[in-house]
Amino acid sequence: MSHQRTVYLIDDDPQDRHSLAFQLGNFGIEAWPFASGTDFLSSLAHLRPECIILSMEVPQQGGHQLMGELLRRNVEWPVIALSRSAELRAAVEAMKLGAIDFLAKPVDIEALLSALGQASIMLDNALRASETRRVAEERVGCLTARELDISLALVCGQANKVVAHQFGISVRTVEAHRANIMMKLGVRSLPELVLLVTQAGHSLSQPAPRPSHSSLPRRPLLGGGSVAPFSATRTAFRRTASGAAL
Known about the structure:
- By secondary structure, the chain is of the alpha/beta class.
- A 5-stranded parallel β-sheet has the order 2-1-3-4-5, sandwiched between helices.
- It starts with 5 loop residues before the first strand and ends with a helix.
- The C terminus is likely disordered.
């Protein structure tokens, strides 16, 4: 528990807050007290990620409402719920909202320390994962929209020829994009590219967008200019044939 130095204690009962903060302090854990969920939310922007010990009976912003608001704000800090009620329904509701444990008051300090130990590990893992994703998103963010689309197609296992056909470009252009993508991202192999793209939050099943007919290459005429895609030519021929029949 030596690495868990701070927790946020939200409880409307001043005696409970003082008693619990004192007991936690004996184990080297500093409890920052809040008398209500509203007080905690008003300070949230200035707080660093830590474990939350929450009494479900807090006034104004009740325990369930506060947990729902934290979810809405994407605050995924571990929450240990406390309650004077030992009803199973209260525990189930708290767990559904993301509480990692539910303890009845008066709190057994050993049970709370055990829950805080698990919460500390969960928080450390979440923070590392968040930092990994942030760095990956920053690296992938240097790609152009076309490079990102081609990257997604490549990491999904599509061959260069397939990617070229999908985007209406030449295989050589795909190879040039691929080399430029690897250089920009600082990766040396396709597995490294796959890892980086997934760390940035992109799904390997995400299909790359198909180009519109207007982006398809046009076949050059002998005298210069170009012709429309085959589907458009076939439609025009049918119209001409219909007119001739009349």
